[in-house]
Amino acid sequence: MVSVLIVTGESLQRLGLRMLLAADPDLDVVGEAASGAEAVRLSAALRPDVVLLDGRLSAPDGAEVIHRVTRPPLLALPAEPGGRQAPPPRVLVLLPSGQEAHAYAALRAGAGGFLLDDATPDELTAALHVVAAGDAVITSGLTRALIDAVRQETPVRPAERGSGLDAFTGRERDVLTAVASGWSNAEIADRLSIAPTTVKSHVSHILAKIGARARVQAVAYAYETGLVRPAA
């Protein structure tokens, strides 16, 4: 069962989302919030698996809200059996069309996925399950738009030793460069002549090394470190 906290300033939208998610027996809406501050408070109190955040609510302080939800103080996290800290909630953002710049900021703050707000009910429920499982959800069209936003907005600095790039193997750098170019795992496997499962393993290692959850965060990292340069 995936627990969900709905966050939107529109009361009718909160009601509609609750009714929609209730149709999935594996989703449980544990609460609703109408503001970012309330989202942070309820997220800490209810510990949902996923916070479903209305992207219109997220601007201009949405990045801070996402950061506080996904990176709470360690003492605020309950312990799981065995004494391990429970993972913090993940955030799925419903993004209005034309708000790619906000998506980039939200991504860097720790958002685990994005859907355009015209997504179908089936796409939304499927995305919640995917994000709850720890994977990223970003539609292909939005991925391209985010890559463009990274290219335009990210200041490029030289890829010097100490930037973190020296932590990658040569093959991981190849895969990271390909990811930053917008290639799918299948395309990377074909062009680098390696198995798709090997590509997936490399991507997982890359995300772990840079402390990222989402594939597009790796794109931002590649541009920020100068591994990949913006097109002229």
Describe the structure.
Helix 6 links the parallel strand 5 and strand 6. A six-stranded parallel β-sheet has the order 2-1-3-4-5-6, with helices on both faces. 50% of the residues lie in helices and 13% in strands. It is α/β, with parallel strands linked by helices and 232 residues long. About 2% of the residues have low confidence. Helix 4 runs parallel beside helix 5. The chain folds into two domains: 148 residues, 3-Layer(aba) Sandwich (Rossmann fold); 68 residues, Arc Repressor Mutant, subunit A (Orthogonal Bundle).
Put simply, the count of helices is 11
Which secondary-structure class do the elements indicate?
alpha/beta
What CATH calls the topology of the largest domain is Rossmann fold
The ordered H/E elements are EHEHEHHEHEHEHHHHH
CATH architecture of the largest domain: 3-Layer(aba) Sandwich
* Unreliable sequence segments: 158-162
Brief account:
The chain has eleven helices and six strands. By secondary structure, it is α/β, with parallel strands linked by helices.
Layout of SSEs?
Blueprint: E1 2-7, H1 11-22, E2 27-33, H2 36-46, E3 50-54, H3 55-58, H4 62-70, E4 90-95, H5 100-109, E5 113-116, H6 121-132, E6 137-138, H7 140-153, H8 170-180, H9 185-192, H10 196-210, H11 215-224
Parallel strand pairs: 1-2, 1-3, 3-4, 4-5, 5-6
Helix pairs in contact: 2-4, 4-5, 5-7, 7-11, 8-10, 8-11, 9-10, 10-11
